[in-house]
Design a protein that fits this description.
Blueprint (H helix, E strand, L loop, with lengths): L2 E5 L2 E4 L4 E8 L6 E8 L6 E8 L2 E4 L7 E6 L4 E6 L8 E9 L5 E3 L3 E6 L1
Parallel strand pairs: 2-11
Antiparallel strand pairs: 1-3, 3-8, 4-5, 4-9, 5-6, 7-8, 9-10, 9-11
């Protein structure tokens, strides 16, 4: 059974930083394109950052230049380094994984990020 376990969310002041981690179990990170989405109440889930191929990433417009997505295949983990956080970044952040050469996809349970002004 494939599971995604997220960690690293919390409360931070505006301008601060957080790093989110997502570890995949029951499968390998190298066999999946992984990334992060976020959602606030009443809004659709939106892209934060994701791998679109093993070496290429895509970012949401509002986080470009502030957030960085990286991966450690040996640890089956992807990281989202979030700098210069703004109150508008407050959301539940969800880890997502899609098979690189298949159609299965998975979601984590979500981790809350709150940025205080």
């Amino acid at each position: 059974q494939v599971q995604l376990v997220e960690s690293g969310g919390g409360l931070v002041q505006s301008g601060g930083s957080l790093r989110l981690s997502c570890t995949i179990s029951g499968a390998t990170a190298s066999g999946h394109l992984m990334g992060w989405y976020r959602q606030t109440p009443g809004k659709q889930r939106e892209l934060v950052a994701r791998f679109i191929s093993p070496g290429n990433t895509a970012y949401g417009e509002s986080v470009k230049g502030r957030f960085t997505l990286s991966r450690d295949n040996a640890r089956n983990t992807v990281y989202l380094q979030m700098n210069s956080l703004e109150p508008e970044d407050t959301a539940v952040y969800y880890c997502h994984a899609h098979q690189t050469w298949g159609s299965s996809e998975y979601w984590g349970q979500g981790t809350q990020v709150t940025v205080a002004s």
